[in-house]
Amino acid sequence: MTQPRERDCKVVPGYNGTGGTLSKGTIVKLKTSGVDDEIIAAAADTDAYLGILRNDVADGAYGDVVIGGTCVALTGAAVTKGSRVMFDTGAVVITATTGKTFVGVARTSDGTGGGYIEVDVVTGGPVMP
Questions:
Q1: How many Å apart are CA 44 and CA 66, to the nearest integer?
Q2: How far out from the chain centre does Cα 60 lie?
Q3: pTM
Q4: What is the pLDDT of residues 13-49, one digit of tens each?
Q5: Is residue 128 a part of any domain in this protein?
């Protein structure tokens, strides 16, 4: 299998003030207080997410948050190509379940979890039927 890659990404800046590094492929949301553009890892599958981190972002630094196009996302469980994906409490993608907000569609598979896949990012977070 080839390495997951990104294509036609639309990005916005995100500032990490969490005190630690936010990892590439993590689902993030805007922090409700603090500096403009401040992001934190999405903590609940009901969070209003912003996008998926394009790269590792050190504390006190800005990084790119992918809000459209195809990006690389970290998986928390096995994901099959073509399935809708959502995020879990670890801010990683898993196969979407009914009634949950999904973040995109998997373009590649990961048979075990803990790896990276390509995801076509869906802006606005529609709910899985």
A1: 19
A2: 20
A3: 0.85
A4: 999 999 999 999 898 999 988 888 999 998 877 788 8
A5: no
